[in-house]
Specification:
This protein is mainly β. The protein has one domain. About 0% of the residues lie in helices and about 10% in strands. It has no helices and four strands. The radius of gyration is 16 Å and the shape is globular.
Length: about 130
Amino acid sequence: MRPLGMDAGNDRDGLGQGRGIVDTIGCNLDTVANAGNHVAQPSLVLGAMNFYPLPGKLQGSPLDLSAFAGHMDYALDFNSTGKGSFAFRGAYAGASTNPGWGLAAEQKVGGPAGGGGLSPAPPTGLQVM
């Protein structure tokens, strides 16, 4: 299998290094059974799951994510909060109580902060061929 690229600063409870990933840099690697030691409510049930970090967890040395600087919103977390020094691991740059959208079956409210918190406009000029 051809390597896919780099995985940096993620919480990979039970996922190991990741199939096809060249580098796993600064990730939290642990078992599914230990996920409750890191996040508020690990679950497989949509609506019950809450992967926001517990206080003092999923943090490490600041990561050098300059390789991703060309990607829009690379410095924002899932809630469009600034990642600061890139010390948090996973989707969120915070701990304790999730101030943003809780995972649910409906579409996420809001969008990337680069767009003023609004969902992006639909594309224009598309043609069905």
